Amino acid sequence: MRYRIIIISAIAAFVFAGCSKRVADTGAGMFPDYRDVTVPCNIAPLNFRTAGYNSSVVVRGSNDSYEFKGHKGLVKFPLKKWRRMMEAEKGNTVTVTVTPQGNGYGESDKMEFTWTISPEPIDKYLSYRLIEPAYEVWSGIQIEQRDMESFGTVLLGDNRNAELCCMNCHTSNRNGTTFMHLRGSKGGTILNRNGKLQKLNTRTENTGNTVYGDISADGRYGVFTTADITFAIHSRVDMRMEVYDKRSDLVVVDFDNLTVTESPATTGDEYQETFPCFSADGKIIFFCRASHHEQPDSISDMHYDIAVMQFDPETGKMGDRVITIVPAGENLSFSHLKTSPDGRWLMATAAKYGTFPVWHKESDLWLIDLETQKIDPLAGVNAYGADTYHSWSSNSRWVVFASKRDDLVYGRPYIAYIGPDGTTGKPFLLPQEDPDKYTTTLKSFNLPELYPISEVYSSRTVASFYKDVETEQVQYKP
Amino acid sequence: MMRRYRIADVALAGFTLVGLWIIFSVQAPYRLEFKEQISIFLFGADRISWYLSNPGIISSVTGDWLTQFYINGRIAAALSCLLLLLITAGLVRFHRLAGSKHKLVLMFLMIPVALEGYFITFPDYPVSAALGLAVAVWSACALAHIKDSRLSPWIYGLSVPVMFVIAGGHAFTMALLLGYLKRKDAAATVICLVAGLIAMALCGRFYNLTLLHTFIWPVYPKHIIPDKGLLILQPLLILAVMSLNHLFFRIGKERIMVGVLLGMAFLIQVLFITTRDKELENVVKIGTLAYRNEWKEVKEMAGSNEPNMYRNFYWNLCGAREGRLADDLLKGRWGSSSSSLFLSTGRNDPYFSMMYFTDALLEIGDVSQATDCALLAQTVMPGHYSTRMLRRLAEIAVVTGDYAVASKYLDILSRTRNHREWARDLQESINRDEIPEQYLIWRSRTASKDHFFGQGDIRSSLKIIAQESPYNRTAIDYLLCSLLLDKNLNSFIDYYDRYYLNALDRIVRVPDLYQEALMVNVNSDESLRATVEKYHISQEVVEKFMNLMAARARSENGEVLTEESVGTYWNYIMAVKLISGNQR
Lengths: 478, 584
Fold this sequence. Notes:
The complex is a heterodimer of chains A (478) and B (584).
Chain A: H1 10-19, E1 37-40, E2 48-49, E3 54-60, E4 65-71, E5 74-75, H2 79-88, E6 93-101, E7 111-118, E8 125-131, E9 142-147, E10 153-158, E11 167-172, E12 177-182, E13 188-193, E14 196-201, E15 210-215, E16 221-234, E17 241-254, E18 259-261, E19 271-278, E20 284-291, E21 305-312, E22 317-318, E23 323-326, E24 333-339, E25 345-351, E26 364-369, E27 375-376, E28 387-392, E29 398-403, E30 412-417, E31 428-429, H3 436-440, E32 444-451, H4 459-468, E33 472-473, E34 475-476
Parallel strand pairs in A: 1-7, 14-33, 18-34
Antiparallel strand pairs in A: 2-5, 3-4, 3-6, 4-5, 6-7, 8-9, 8-32, 9-10, 11-12, 12-13, 13-14, 15-16, 16-17, 17-18, 19-20, 20-21, 21-22, 21-23, 24-25, 25-26, 26-27, 28-29, 29-30, 30-31
Chain B: H1 2-27, H2 29-37, H3 45-52, H4 57-67, H5 73-97, H6 103-108, H7 110-120, H8 127-143, H9 152-167, H10 171-181, H11 186-206, H12 211-216, H13 228-247, H14 254-276, H15 278-291, H16 295-304, H17 309-321, H18 325-328, H19 337-340, H20 351-364, H21 367-380, H22 387-400, H23 403-413, H24 420-432, H25 437-444, E1 452-453, H26 458-468, H27 473-485, H28 489-499, H29 512-518, H30 525-535, H31 539-554, H32 569-583
Helix pairs in contact in B: 1-5, 1-14, 2-5, 2-15, 4-8, 5-7, 5-8, 7-13, 7-14, 8-9, 8-10, 9-10, 9-11, 10-11, 10-13, 15-16, 15-20, 16-17, 17-20, 20-21, 21-22, 22-23, 22-25, 23-24, 26-27, 27-28
């Protein structure tokens, strides 16, 4: 087994990460805070708001200088000029000077900051779920695909057309295979394999509903948690809700043969397993595992380790031996594992306990170097408020994640640069045509997922799949 | 002669308008006012993209803007009347343009207008829907001027989906009116209009709407209006009334019929608004009074009408606010605890329940469930935005000390016409760290240790709060009263011993209700003496109890009540026994 137990003290790293916590900086003078960030060369214009004044914005690059105007606090970059500038300054660091215009503003009101324009592009598409951060409300769930190079969006799912069923986990392998779960009476897993759509029932007599999952790079296999998920409300007002699995196991679905298999190593009541993902070469399955405790009463005792098991892509068989590579601790539990496409990194969410860190304000992203086995608690990326549900760009240089750092309740998609050596850039908020979109919406952006190939379906296709298309039953393969 | 008719028309219109205004102002002011509480007019990026991603853009924007003025019941009534007048004037105009000559038909047109008046009194029926009808009717009038017989069918057909995008589902009404207009050269027109309607249905699919929702947009089919069929019926009714022109061609004595039909229209209106949905008006009124913090009026209203779920709830909440929950609990409005003290907040319950329940949850100190209810209410109501719930969420965030999220809600509210001042005042209080006292009181009642409970499990939550804050009398009284109403005496005594005995009873007077309940299990002189001694039962309660026991001993079946035991807990227990006896 290539991966041995990582010796580095995860607990110490957690303590270190805790020290890095800071309250979100709201005194930036601009929203979103785009000061001194590293951005991909193909990102949509970083429109921002200032304090309501007209302004002159000058971007000084190595090759040229670009002038823009801000009107009544809104600085909006024309798309064509922005693209020209980004193309010309690719790989450079540009200086941005925002000078307020009009009476009453002086030199001290001027803002100056830098943008490092990385030549590494980010994947062209991002999907996310828009949902009210209520406790258990599925009244208006939408899954949207956003073009990262412009502000265009396509609605991939809208549960108003699917009996208000829950829709979740739009997941891509970045090579043209995606899945999305639809719950409800006519639900199923919508699988897109290079444009061919299927609605699968992955529940069998022997295995439960599939939930969180990942797809192998070749698109043949999906590895999933099968879990019985429920929730309870905290009496303490600052903690809101706890979602937990009453039981959970792992299964692998073979999309070629429509079969589902499991391993004795990840079934049974002694342990709960969740958040599986494939390694880049598809030969290892990473997942989170904890000893079972009665929940919700003992939920604070649920500490999930990071574990691995082998997987044979030829036969589709899971290994029969589980090895813990990063142990959990008294105040440490892992979730949301994702390997980088280049196979170098494993990113996880670390929280104090449990398996649903979205409502845990202490949740942070951690980066594990699978070559050197070092753990980085990403002090420069995390902030006070839950940082969760990350997704890698195809080139492994960018991650997008849902962060509640701005108000602790509403998740927003932040993007961070991850260098080849693991160095990180300051995260920045996904740009919008009008940044006010974030301040006036009552929806949380969650489950962000990056991928380079546009999804083939829209919400109308999903609605008709939900209503009219027969579900294909996946067979259990012992 | 002509001039005299015009004066008569104006007088009739004026009379109708004033009459309608009086009906709305007297019978439905709170229902109209409630529209403002469950909507918002914002022109931010997110809201604009919402408008653009739904049909009826113009009517929705204008309707939401108008709804801001519904904050006052009388103004709401006046605006509703003006909308109805606009619709009526449009129909009259169309009637003339269609070449109809009979005033009798005009009077029949009052029926669909009256129906619109009925719809408008529903809190869920958005102003934009009435506005959409007005736009559709007047657009039909405008299109009637196109005389080119080759061009007009194409324009009519094309205008249907366009009207859907502009004004919503009433594009269907316009299509029917245009079809009527071109009834004589049918073929091309009908084909184009059918094509237009199909295009409208396809547009509905584009907007992710079901077929029904397409034709009634912006009304949401799963909400309060009980007769959804009427929504579809209304355009057909307008068409049918227009068609009456031919039927009444030979009927004379129009003047007599005018009076009769006008009276009928009014009768329908009054009947629908006053009798059928009076209860809805009361439900909305009591919640609105609580929203305005007019608690004296809330109590009066809760006490002076027939008991129902919401009145019982507010009656008890008023009692709790005054520290008299137990004292007032049995004054004529008891039932099971779920319908008297708490409101049900399941997914299929009306959003009124969720909105109103937050009032009690905050008093109790159950901020977790108050947040849940406020978010849930806002999410399940038609427009997903509610100024009232945003205010509540901001208040909850201040109570919990989550000022960042409070600022988010306050920022949204500060962009509205009616709540700007309130939001700015509260934001300034936060900035100055001078939190209003009420919020600090609520904060002091919340739990500080962490426990889990299920959604809607108010009993568990009360137990946790009581355990955490043994001097949170409101929560403890709610817990004890709910146990008493459910006749769970063992648990009542257990929790009484825990929180009242030698604790709260040293600070506050123990309500007679609790003393009576503590004596229910007394069955001997010895247990009487022990109970009186342990719980310091007052002499008055002991005497009442003795009298009741004596009367019961004298009676044959032992189920008797003395005059002085009416309104006591013994009465509550025994009355139930008697009823079950009768049922047997």
